[in-house]
Amino acid sequence: MKKLLIILFVSTSLSLLSQARLVFNNDGQLVMNNGVFLVLENGNSNAIMTMGTGGKLVSELEDNKIRWKIGSNTGSYTIPYADNASSGAGYGNNAYAADNGSKIPYTLTIVSAGTGGNGYIDFSTYDGPDWNNDTYRPSMVTHMQQLYAPGAVNHSDHAIDRFWIIQTNYTTQPTTSHVFGYIDDEITAVGNNLLEVNLGAQRFNDPAQLWGDMLPIKSGQNTAVNWLSTPNVAPSDFFAAWILSDITNPLPVEFSSFNVSCRNNGEVKIIWSTQSENNNSHFIIERSTDGIQFDEIGVVQGNGNSTQQIIYEYIDYDRIGLAYYRIRQVDFDGNSKTTKILNSNCIENQEPIVFENNNHFYIQMTSSKDDNVIFSLYDAAGRLVFIQDNNIHQGDNLIKINKVLETGVYFITISSSEIQQSVKAFMK
Are 14 and 39 spatial neighbours (Cβ–Cβ below 8 Å)? Predict the structure, then answer.
């Protein structure tokens, strides 16, 4: 039987109107190039059909989109995607080797219809040139991090080298399920660290910039023919960008915050929070005096599995001054990962030391935090001679009293949020 071959090289939109259908017969192919919009105004699920041995539709750029005006219809909508099989294929390369691309069909099942808006859904998919998804993220995805904080680790090695974009303009999203086709090479590429049997579908919450507020999901998988299905996805969890990631090492924002601060007596308060938890056994609090060699100083139990924010706290009572802290999170299976390193210098307040030099008093003092101090200077008869206001910093401070003084006995009152003290001093 003769094969139907359709090649499209345009950069404007092509619209198929009313009850028109796009039919692929016996591996017929349609290649989208240079930011094409293919608009289907037929809202029925058979507006794209395959016959015989099927078809191949190549997108391979985020902006090569099928806009399907589905409206209030429900049903299963399948796009017969195929990968780009040309030499050097990857993001930004639309060259295509005819007939050689592997079929990776995608199906969206609308269980309950979306409402509001113009009732269309934009579909696209593309792969990347290597394991590092962070270099070819969709426009709405801001990171591929597991620890969502500045300097967090890029975990592209735990995700397949392909993105899917399913973007609607409904006011209220539909309830859906998904079937993703994929390619072995996008799992086994050099640099990746994931097993096919552990794959699950995960979407990016772009308003909140989170991967992990919904952990990877799947309802079925066939590793022989390379497809993965999901259970129903609630409207509140339906966002545009999707990927397949390792369920045993997902892309959650586990640590949404991590801070250390000083308490009034020089102790260190360590506080952190998780946006989500998956298989989380416990946290180990580690401390170092040089930022290199860390020792365990405490353990806090985790909450296993959670999609809610949880706040944790630990107090270091040792008062050792400058110290470095990090949190090591340990899974039930023994795997662990650590946060970034923070330092703190919570020096316990010591007695101020007063000495005189060239008709001025100098006060040496330490503080456990940045603070404001008022120095009140009285003579031996109790008369106020001078008042001085100084900002001091955490740690050691040397303050000069900016008053030329005569020989005699003086009393210096030191007042701050932490200190209320009077010191007797002699000017020689």
Answer: yes
Whole-number Å distance between alpha carbons of 66 and 186:
23
270 close to 169: Cβ distance less than 8 angstroms: no
Q: What is the pLDDT of residues 338-390, one digit of tens each?
A: 787 888 877 655 678 888 888 899 998 877 678 899 999 998 888 899 999 99
Tally the residues of the chain. Answer: 428
| pTM, to two decimals | 0.59
CATH (residue range 255-346): 2.60.40.10
Rg (CA), the chain: 32
CA 246/CA 197 separation, integer angstroms:
9
- The answer, yes or no, to whether residue 99 has pLDDT greater than 70, is no
In the chain, ranges of CATH 2.60.40.2550 domains: 353-427
CB 214 within 8 A of CB 152: no
Cα(first)–Cα(last) distance of the chain, in Å? 112
Q: HEC profile for 351-362?
A: CCEEEEECCEEE
pLDDT at 182: 96
CATH architecture of 353-427: Sandwich (2.60)
Model pLDDT for residues 304-328, shown as the tens digit of each residue:
877 778 899 999 988 777 788 999 8
At residue 380, what are phi and psi to the nearest 5 degrees? -65, -25
Structure-token match 């591929």, residue found: 144
Residues of the chain with CATH 2.60.40.10: 255-346
